[in-house]
Amino acid sequence: MLQRALLSVKRRPYLLFLFIALALIVYPFFTLHQTTDIHIYDTMLVIPTSHICWLVSFCFIAAAGLYAGLKHFLPSRALTWAHILLTLLILFLVVFFADYYNTGARQKTYYYINTSEVAYRWLILFLLGAQLIFAGHLFWGIARYIIKKR
């Protein structure tokens, strides 16, 4: 059964998003009453970790649904793997930096930018680039489909 599941993921890599989403749906039940503090200059947002996990899992489920619905238009499985693995790697690095550079309680001056903020900016830029891989892949597939129809 495990071998069948692995073969299924190999043929349909977007199922990896569903596995991660399932883990993120279950994770908050083990970390009850934890919050995430987000500091934006003089504003502090306190958000339950469960809400963040469920929002990210919803995004993963939506992405898997997009892939499942558009799989006939996507010509390259390698680009699908590239998008999925880059997205998961970058999100893992964001979580790692958030834990490693936990600077929530430290006071900052107006123009002080620490290394974690620079790392976050680069990671967000790379995450947007990974999403552009999906958009380009989809555009390429739809263009091929339209050309074949002629």
Oligomer: single chain
Percentage of residues in helical conformation: 55-70%
SSE arrangement, N to C:
HHEEHHH
Count the helices. How many? Answer: 5
Can you tell me about this structure?
With about 150 residues, the protein is mainly α. The protein has 2 domains: about 1-70, no CATH class; about 75-150. The protein has 5 helices and 2 strands, in the order H-H-E-E-H-H-H. The chain has helices spanning about 1-10, 15-25, 50-70, 75-100, 115-150, and strands at about 35-40, 45-50. A two-stranded antiparallel sheet has the order 1-2. Helix 2 packs antiparallel against helix 3 (about 50-70) and helix 4 packs antiparallel against helix 5.
Q: Which labels suit this protein?
A:
two-stranded antiparallel sheet, 150 residues, 5 helices, mainly alpha, 2 strands, 8% strand, 2 domains
